[in-house]
Amino acid sequence: MSIPEAFLMLHREMTRQGPGTPEDVRWALSQIELPEHPRVLDAACGPGADLVTLAEALPLAQIEGIDQLPHLVDEARDATDRFSNVTVSEGDMSQITGFYDLIWCAGALYFLGVTEGLRLWRNALAPGGTVAFSEPALEADASDDARAFWADYPQVTDLQGVCARVEEAGYEVLGTRLIKGLAWAGYYAELSARINGLRGEGNAALTQVLDAAEREIALWRAAPDQVAYVLVLARPRLMAL
Protein backbone atom coordinates (compact mmCIF):
# COMPACT_ATOMS: atom_id res chain seq x y z
CA MET A 1 0.00 0.00 0.00
CA SER A 2 1.31 3.44 -0.95
CA ILE A 3 1.06 6.61 1.15
CA PRO A 4 -1.73 8.06 -1.06
CA GLU A 5 -3.67 4.80 -0.83
CA ALA A 6 -3.25 4.75 2.94
CA PHE A 7 -4.44 8.35 3.18
CA LEU A 8 -7.57 7.54 1.19
CA MET A 9 -8.19 4.47 3.36
CA LEU A 10 -8.04 6.56 6.53
CA HIS A 11 -10.61 9.05 5.22
CA ARG A 12 -13.03 6.56 3.68
CA GLU A 13 -16.56 6.38 5.05
CA MET A 14 -16.19 9.57 7.08
CA THR A 15 -19.11 11.97 7.30
CA ARG A 16 -16.90 14.86 6.24
CA GLN A 17 -13.42 15.30 4.79
CA GLY A 18 -12.74 18.38 6.93
CA PRO A 19 -14.18 20.64 9.65
CA GLY A 20 -17.61 22.14 9.14
CA THR A 21 -21.23 21.96 10.26
CA PRO A 22 -24.69 22.25 8.69
CA GLU A 23 -25.00 25.59 10.48
CA ASP A 24 -22.20 26.97 8.27
CA VAL A 25 -24.22 26.15 5.16
CA ARG A 26 -27.42 27.56 6.63
CA TRP A 27 -25.61 30.74 7.65
CA ALA A 28 -24.32 31.24 4.11
CA LEU A 29 -27.78 30.75 2.64
CA SER A 30 -29.23 33.25 5.12
CA GLN A 31 -26.83 35.95 3.92
CA ILE A 32 -27.58 35.84 0.20
CA GLU A 33 -30.61 36.13 -2.05
CA LEU A 34 -31.19 33.26 -4.46
CA PRO A 35 -33.81 32.92 -7.18
CA GLU A 36 -36.81 30.69 -6.53
CA HIS A 37 -35.28 27.82 -8.48
CA PRO A 38 -31.53 28.32 -8.04
CA ARG A 39 -28.80 26.25 -9.61
CA VAL A 40 -26.23 25.28 -6.99
CA LEU A 41 -22.88 23.48 -7.23
CA ASP A 42 -20.91 21.86 -4.41
CA ALA A 43 -17.35 21.83 -5.77
CA ALA A 44 -15.24 19.04 -4.25
CA CYS A 45 -18.32 17.75 -2.46
CA GLY A 46 -16.58 14.87 -0.66
CA PRO A 47 -18.98 12.32 0.85
CA GLY A 48 -21.92 14.71 0.52
CA ALA A 49 -22.57 16.13 4.00
CA ASP A 50 -23.06 19.67 2.70
CA LEU A 51 -25.08 18.44 -0.27
CA VAL A 52 -27.59 17.02 2.21
CA THR A 53 -27.86 20.36 4.01
CA LEU A 54 -28.20 22.26 0.74
CA ALA A 55 -30.93 19.89 -0.44
CA GLU A 56 -32.84 20.18 2.82
CA ALA A 57 -32.65 23.97 2.77
CA LEU A 58 -33.32 24.43 -0.97
CA PRO A 59 -35.97 21.92 -2.06
CA LEU A 60 -36.67 23.86 -5.28
CA ALA A 61 -33.02 24.10 -6.32
CA GLN A 62 -31.16 22.11 -8.92
CA ILE A 63 -28.13 20.94 -6.94
CA GLU A 64 -25.00 19.32 -8.35
CA GLY A 65 -22.00 17.85 -6.58
CA ILE A 66 -18.65 17.08 -8.17
CA ASP A 67 -15.55 15.38 -6.84
CA GLN A 68 -12.48 13.90 -8.47
CA LEU A 69 -12.40 10.74 -6.34
CA PRO A 70 -14.78 7.99 -7.49
CA HIS A 71 -15.32 6.53 -4.01
CA LEU A 72 -16.35 9.96 -2.68
CA VAL A 73 -18.78 10.34 -5.58
CA ASP A 74 -20.30 6.98 -4.61
CA GLU A 75 -20.54 8.01 -0.95
CA ALA A 76 -22.14 11.35 -1.86
CA ARG A 77 -24.68 9.60 -4.08
CA ASP A 78 -25.58 7.27 -1.22
CA ALA A 79 -25.92 10.23 1.17
CA THR A 80 -28.25 12.12 -1.18
CA ASP A 81 -30.20 9.31 -2.83
CA ARG A 82 -33.46 10.43 -1.17
CA PHE A 83 -33.31 13.83 -2.87
CA SER A 84 -34.66 14.03 -6.41
CA ASN A 85 -33.05 17.43 -7.01
CA VAL A 86 -29.42 16.35 -6.37
CA THR A 87 -26.99 14.81 -8.85
CA VAL A 88 -23.38 13.85 -8.15
CA SER A 89 -20.67 13.15 -10.70
CA GLU A 90 -16.92 12.93 -11.12
CA GLY A 91 -15.49 16.29 -12.06
CA ASP A 92 -12.55 18.67 -11.82
CA MET A 93 -13.37 21.87 -9.95
CA SER A 94 -10.84 23.75 -12.11
CA GLN A 95 -13.06 23.11 -15.15
CA ILE A 96 -16.47 24.19 -13.93
CA THR A 97 -18.93 25.49 -16.51
CA GLY A 98 -22.14 27.21 -15.49
CA PHE A 99 -24.22 28.98 -14.88
CA TYR A 100 -24.65 28.67 -11.08
CA ASP A 101 -26.36 30.99 -8.64
CA LEU A 102 -24.19 29.56 -5.84
CA ILE A 103 -20.90 27.67 -5.88
CA TRP A 104 -20.20 26.12 -2.49
CA CYS A 105 -16.68 24.87 -1.76
CA ALA A 106 -15.80 23.69 1.76
CA GLY A 107 -12.09 23.55 2.52
CA ALA A 108 -10.90 22.77 -1.01
CA LEU A 109 -10.39 26.03 -2.92
CA TYR A 110 -6.80 26.19 -1.62
CA PHE A 111 -5.95 23.40 -4.09
CA LEU A 112 -6.45 25.97 -6.86
CA GLY A 113 -5.52 29.05 -4.84
CA VAL A 114 -8.14 31.54 -3.70
CA THR A 115 -7.41 34.18 -6.34
CA GLU A 116 -6.79 31.67 -9.10
CA GLY A 117 -9.87 29.59 -8.33
CA LEU A 118 -12.21 32.55 -8.11
CA ARG A 119 -10.95 33.85 -11.44
CA LEU A 120 -11.61 30.44 -13.01
CA TRP A 121 -15.13 30.34 -11.59
CA ARG A 122 -16.20 33.85 -12.57
CA ASN A 123 -17.60 32.73 -15.91
CA ALA A 124 -19.40 29.80 -14.27
CA LEU A 125 -21.57 32.11 -12.16
CA ALA A 126 -24.97 33.38 -13.20
CA PRO A 127 -25.45 37.16 -12.98
CA GLY A 128 -25.51 38.02 -9.28
CA GLY A 129 -24.12 34.60 -8.38
CA THR A 130 -22.08 33.97 -5.24
CA VAL A 131 -19.15 31.77 -4.24
CA ALA A 132 -19.04 30.48 -0.67
CA PHE A 133 -15.72 28.92 0.31
CA SER A 134 -13.70 28.18 3.43
CA GLU A 135 -9.99 28.89 3.72
CA PRO A 136 -7.41 28.55 6.54
CA ALA A 137 -6.96 31.76 8.52
CA LEU A 138 -4.33 32.63 11.11
CA GLU A 139 -4.39 35.86 13.07
CA ALA A 140 -1.22 37.94 13.41
CA ASP A 141 -1.07 37.36 17.17
CA ALA A 142 -1.60 33.59 16.91
CA SER A 143 0.37 31.36 19.26
CA ASP A 144 3.32 29.24 18.25
CA ASP A 145 1.09 26.17 18.56
CA ALA A 146 -1.41 27.58 16.07
CA ARG A 147 1.40 28.49 13.68
CA ALA A 148 2.81 24.99 14.00
CA PHE A 149 -0.57 23.56 12.98
CA TRP A 150 -0.40 25.40 9.63
CA ALA A 151 3.34 24.82 9.07
CA ASP A 152 2.62 22.71 5.97
CA TYR A 153 0.46 25.45 4.45
CA PRO A 154 2.77 28.47 4.08
CA GLN A 155 0.10 30.38 2.10
CA VAL A 156 -1.99 30.83 5.26
CA THR A 157 -2.82 34.47 6.09
CA ASP A 158 -5.07 36.33 8.48
CA LEU A 159 -8.65 37.25 7.59
CA GLN A 160 -7.54 40.47 5.93
CA GLY A 161 -5.13 38.51 3.77
CA VAL A 162 -7.87 36.13 2.63
CA CYS A 163 -10.10 39.08 1.77
CA ALA A 164 -7.25 40.69 -0.16
CA ARG A 165 -6.92 37.56 -2.30
CA VAL A 166 -10.67 37.66 -2.96
CA GLU A 167 -10.47 41.30 -4.06
CA GLU A 168 -7.44 40.56 -6.24
CA ALA A 169 -9.64 38.10 -8.14
CA GLY A 170 -12.12 40.87 -8.92
CA TYR A 171 -14.69 39.90 -6.27
CA GLU A 172 -16.21 41.72 -3.32
CA VAL A 173 -16.55 40.12 0.10
CA LEU A 174 -20.19 39.92 1.19
CA GLY A 175 -19.62 38.34 4.59
CA THR A 176 -17.35 36.11 6.65
CA ARG A 177 -17.79 33.55 9.44
CA LEU A 178 -15.10 31.77 11.46
CA ILE A 179 -15.20 27.97 11.60
CA LYS A 180 -13.46 26.70 14.71
CA GLY A 181 -14.07 24.90 17.99
CA LEU A 182 -16.90 22.38 17.75
CA ALA A 183 -16.64 22.01 13.97
CA TRP A 184 -13.05 20.84 14.35
CA ALA A 185 -13.77 18.76 17.46
CA GLY A 186 -16.46 16.79 15.64
CA TYR A 187 -14.25 16.14 12.63
CA TYR A 188 -11.29 15.04 14.72
CA ALA A 189 -13.43 12.80 16.94
CA GLU A 190 -14.51 10.87 13.85
CA LEU A 191 -10.96 10.84 12.48
CA SER A 192 -9.61 9.54 15.80
CA ALA A 193 -12.10 6.67 15.68
CA ARG A 194 -10.88 5.80 12.18
CA ILE A 195 -7.25 5.87 13.36
CA ASN A 196 -8.00 3.55 16.27
CA GLY A 197 -9.90 1.16 14.02
CA LEU A 198 -7.02 0.89 11.55
CA ARG A 199 -4.19 0.50 14.04
CA GLY A 200 -2.34 -2.80 14.14
CA GLU A 201 -2.74 -3.73 10.48
CA GLY A 202 1.04 -3.82 10.13
CA ASN A 203 1.36 -1.84 6.92
CA ALA A 204 4.24 0.67 7.02
CA ALA A 205 2.57 3.25 4.78
CA LEU A 206 -0.67 3.09 6.73
CA THR A 207 1.17 3.40 10.03
CA GLN A 208 2.97 6.50 8.72
CA VAL A 209 -0.33 8.09 7.67
CA LEU A 210 -2.00 7.26 10.98
CA ASP A 211 0.92 8.72 12.92
CA ALA A 212 0.77 11.93 10.86
CA ALA A 213 -2.98 12.23 11.48
CA GLU A 214 -2.46 11.81 15.22
CA ARG A 215 0.19 14.56 15.16
CA GLU A 216 -2.25 16.84 13.38
CA ILE A 217 -4.90 16.20 16.01
CA ALA A 218 -2.38 16.82 18.79
CA LEU A 219 -1.40 20.15 17.22
CA TRP A 220 -5.05 21.19 17.05
CA ARG A 221 -5.61 20.22 20.69
CA ALA A 222 -2.74 22.52 21.68
CA ALA A 223 -4.57 25.58 20.25
CA PRO A 224 -8.24 24.68 19.60
CA ASP A 225 -9.47 28.27 19.89
CA GLN A 226 -6.94 29.63 17.40
CA VAL A 227 -7.06 27.07 14.59
CA ALA A 228 -9.76 28.18 12.17
CA TYR A 229 -11.13 28.34 8.68
CA VAL A 230 -12.89 31.47 7.54
CA LEU A 231 -16.04 30.95 5.49
CA VAL A 232 -16.20 33.69 2.88
CA LEU A 233 -19.11 34.83 0.72
CA ALA A 234 -17.81 36.48 -2.44
CA ARG A 235 -19.42 37.93 -5.54
CA PRO A 236 -17.77 39.26 -8.71
CA ARG A 237 -17.58 43.02 -8.84
CA LEU A 238 -19.49 44.62 -11.67
CA MET A 239 -17.25 45.61 -14.54
CA ALA A 240 -17.03 49.35 -15.19
CA LEU A 241 -18.59 50.41 -18.47
Automatic annotation (TrEMBL):
Coiled-coil annotation reads none
Give any single GO term for biological process: methylation
Q: Which UniProt keywords apply?
A: Methyltransferase, Transferase
EC number, as in UniProt: 2.1.-.-
MF terms in GO: methyltransferase activity
Domain named Methyltransferase: which ranges? 40-129
The family database entries (PANTHER family) matched by this protein are listed as:
TRANS-ACONITATE 2-METHYLTRANSFERASE (PTHR43861:SF1), TRANS-ACONITATE 2-METHYLTRANSFERASE-RELATED (PTHR43861)
UniProt protein name: Class I SAM-dependent methyltransferase
Annotated source species: Roseovarius phycicola
